[in-house]
Every structure is written in C-alpha cells, then in structure tokens.
Amino acid sequence: MAKKIFDILPPKEFEKKKVEEFPLEKEYQPRFKKPEFKISKKLSSSFFIPLVLILIGIFCYFTLSKAEIEIWPESEVLTFETKLTVDKTAENVDFSNKVIPGKIFEAEKTITEEFSSSGVVLKEKKAEGIIRVYNAYSTSPQVLIARTRFVSADGKLFRTPTKITIPGGHYEKGKLVPGYLDVQVKADQPGLEYNIDPSTFSIPGFAGTARYTKFYGKSFQAMTGGFSEEVPQVTQEDLDQAQKILEEKALQNCQAVLKEKISPEFILLDDILRSQIIETFSLARPKEELEKFSFQVKASSTALVFKTEDAENFARDFILSQIPEDYNPPATQYETLPPHPKLYQESLKITYSLENVNLELAKATLFLQMEAKIYSDIDTENLKKGLSKKSLTEAKLFLEDQPQITQVLVKFWPFWVKKVPEDIEKIKIKLNLD
After folding, report:
1. What is the reported pLDDT for 50?
2. How far apart are CA 195 and CA 191, in angstroms?
3. What is the DSSP string of 416-430?
4. CA–CA distance, 420 with 396 (Å, rounded to integer)
5. What's this model's pTM, rounded to 2 decimal places?
6. DSSP single-letter state for residue 313
7. Cα dihedral value 79, 82, 88, 92, nearest 10
8. Would you state the pLDDT for residue 5?
C-alpha cells in the first residue's frame, strides 16, 4: 500500500498558514512608489510672466495698433451777395429762380389796465332849505324882490331865488295874526358851513325901518347840500397817456405771443414783422369826475418767416455754383479725378436785409450777404492706401506732398508702433477746418 508523504506541513496546518499570509481585510500596499516631480514657484513666475507680456504685446500690436492723422486741407473764406424771394405759395426751394417757401404767423393781444386821474376840479354847491317868512307888519301883502337877503342868527346869508309875496296878517280878537309864506332859499356862498341847524332869519334890506322887526323868517329843518372841495377829474392828457402806454405794451406783448408760436426751425426778421393797434376803448371821458379809470387796447401782429434749413441750403448751393472751375488743385497719383471743393457748413454765415415786403401777398425780397470757408475735398480712402505700412517720417512726407493739404499731424498708438498699420480700417483721418 502506497504511503502519502507531506514535505513540510500537514494539510490542515498548510491551509491555516495560507490564510494568515493573505488576510482579506488588509489593503494592498505597493512595494514601490511613483516618483514626484515639483517645480519651484520662483521658476514658474520667471517663466510665465514674461510669456504673458509677450502674448499681450503681440495681441495689442495686431489688434489695437492704429494711426491717428489730423489734416488741415487747403481752404479759403469766400463772400457772395445775391437776392432771395420768400414766397408763401412756394412749396420747395427753387434755386434757379432764387425762391424759398415762406409761412405766415399771426397773433392778437388785448391789454386792459387801470389808471389814476391827474386832473383836479373844485367842486362846490350852495346849501338850500325852506324858511317860513312872516308878515307881522300889516294886513297888506309885502312883495320881496328876487335875491332878497335873509341872515341867520349866526350871520349866514341866504337869498330867495325868485320874487315872492308875503301875505298880510289878519286880526283875531283885536290882535294881528302874522301872515306867512314858506320860501325856498339858497346860501349866498358854497361850503359846509352853510349847512346850519334850524334858525331865525332877518331881512337886512329892512334895517333902519319899522318893517325890520316885523318881517322875519324861521327854519324848522337844517339847511343841506352845501360843500366845497377838490375832486379828481379825468383829463384828455390822462386818456392820451394811457393810450400811449397801453399801445406800446400791447405791441410788445403781441409780438412776444407771435414769436412763441414760431418754432426754432424758422427765421423771423423784425423787418418782416408788422404789428398794429386795431382797437382802443375807454368808458371814461374828459372832465369826468373819477379817481381812476380803465383803458383797453387790442393789437395784432403778422410775420412772414422761412426755414433756416431752406436758406442755408440755398446759400450753400449758390456759393458752390459761384466757385471757378480752376479753383481745384490737380489730382495726385492716388486720385482718378481732381478733388471737388466742399463747403464747411459750420463756417457758413448769412446776413439778411429786407428789400421789400408785401404781407398781404405773403411775399418778401431779401438781400443776402453770405460767407463760408471752402476747402478741397480729400479722398481719405486713397490716402489710407498710400499711407499703409509707412513710417512716421514717410507718412508725413507723403501727406505734405499732397497739394490740397497745408498741415498734418500723425500719431501712432500704442507707443511702440513704428509704422502705419497695413489694415486701413485702423487708420483714422480727421479733417481740421477750424
């Protein structure tokens, strides 16, 4: 019978040993570690920063570089004169007939003010009243002539306005009963002092006779109506002055109202503005006793205006049409045609003066004096092609060689750029006409 031989351990011990050498719970640990490579921060900065700067510089050079060129073109200030008609019936600018459209504006203004009267008049009135005149002299009537005097107890003189007859008395039981008559009397002088209370009256005309004490009067009510004072009065000069003041104000205010209606796009000339007074009114009359009075004035304004744009367009076209054909300098090698003259719009100045106007027909003739700066038209696109890739010196010489240019200023950006960019979109040209 064959025998089994175990070299080292019996089967049970072998299995136990195997489990101990390879436990499942422990993580596998490699015997060899991978090498780690580290770069120092100092070495990284010294390499990275210059690289970034170089890249930024390249970016700026190819994307931000540009040339700025300022050019003073050949120019001249020219002056011209001509006539121009402003016509409401015109619809558009007619250059051949020298006519531009016009427009009528109208306005009205009414002004009313109160004024003080400057006149003074002495107004006076005599006091009046009734006195009863007695005849205790006889049974015969007594005639008293007109303006017979009656004197009150305090010495105030009154008169009868007409002739009167005082009835005679009569006897009763052997005693004479006086006859009497109520008489209207008026003070001899005006004034408040004659507004006296009831009083007795004597007749000075009978003084020194028996009738003096037998004829007398009595009042039973106070005399009234007497006064003497200065009162204000409207004079013709007051009315004339009020009219003058209000007419001036009405015209000014009416013109102001009219100008407010006109928008800034229009030109209003004072010579084509007509204002007039169409109505004056006052209830007061000369010598009327008033401390204050009112005066009213109504004014109207009419103006023929025209658009600034129409006038400037006409002036611009007229000036350009008057420039001689030989005004332009010859063409350069970068131009196919000679440069045409151009008008510097900001330099245009126009002076208007009125020759005649008819507002009823809404038409006016103006005399125009025009002044503007004319300059040579410069083909900037061809200039840019000629400037491409030139140095600063070459660019200046190239520009100064152009007959239509009098002065130049060339700038590169950024500072390290030494030549005009090849891309013409990066070349900026500005015309200086001031």
Report:
1. 64
2. 8
3. T--B--SSGGGEEEE
4. 11
5. 0.60
6. H
7. -70
8. 40
Could you tell me which residues are beta bridge partners of residue 66?
A: 413
Per-residue pLDDT averaged across 408-415, rounded? Answer: 88
Residue whose pair of structure tokens reads 């004829």 in the numeric block: 215
Residue type, 286: P
Neighbours of 351 (CB within 10 A): 11
- Listed by start position, the domains of the chain span 103-117+233-303, 122-230
Where do the DSSP E strands lie in 117-174?
119-125, 128-135, 142-144, 149-152, 157-159, 164-166, 170-172
Instruction: Write out pLDDT tens, residues 97-125.
Output: 999 999 999 999 999 999 999 999 999 99
* Token pair 């004659």: residue: 194
Q: How far apart are CA 336 and CA 156, in angstroms?
A: 120
pLDDT at 328: 54
Q: Which residue has the tokens 């004490």?
A: 213
pLDDT, mean of residues 40-61:
57
- Residue 24 and residue 409: Cα distance in Å, rounded? 87
CA distances from 80 to 324, 350, 354 (A): 13, 10, 17
Token pair for residue 395?
Answer: 């660019």
Whether residue 23 is predicted with pLDDT greater than 70 in this model: the reply is no
Are the CB atoms for 331 and 339 separated by under 8 Å? yes
Beta strands in 156-265 (DSSP E): 157-159, 164-166, 170-172, 175-177, 179-187, 200-202, 215-218, 227-233
pLDDT of residue 311: 96
Left (φ > 0), alpha (ψ -120 to 50) or beta: where does 225 sit? left
Q: How, if at all, do strands 66-73 and 427-431 pair? A: parallel
Asked whether the bond before 341 is cis by omega within 30 degrees of 0, the reply is no
Q: Does 286 or 30 have the greater pLDDT score?
A: 286
| Dihedral class, residue 98 (left if φ above 0, else alpha if ψ from -120 to 50, else beta) | left
Tokens 């000036």 sit on residue: 319
Q: State residue 355 phi and psi, 5-degree precision.
A: -95, -45
How far apart CA 430 and CA 409 sit, in angstroms, is 10
Residue 260's pLDDT band (cuts 50, 70, 90): very high
Is residue 22 scored above 50 in pLDDT? no
pLDDT for 89 equals: 96
Tell me the C-alpha to C-alpha distance, in Å, between residue 333 and each of 9, 396, 403. Answer: 110, 16, 11
Q: Which two tokens stand for residue 83?
A: 């006539």
> 72, 405 in Cβ contact below 8 A?
yes
What is the average per-residue pLDDT within 342-355? Answer: 93
Rounded to an integer, the average pLDDT of 216-229 is: 96
Instruction: Please list the residues that pair with 227 across neighbouring strands.
Output: 125
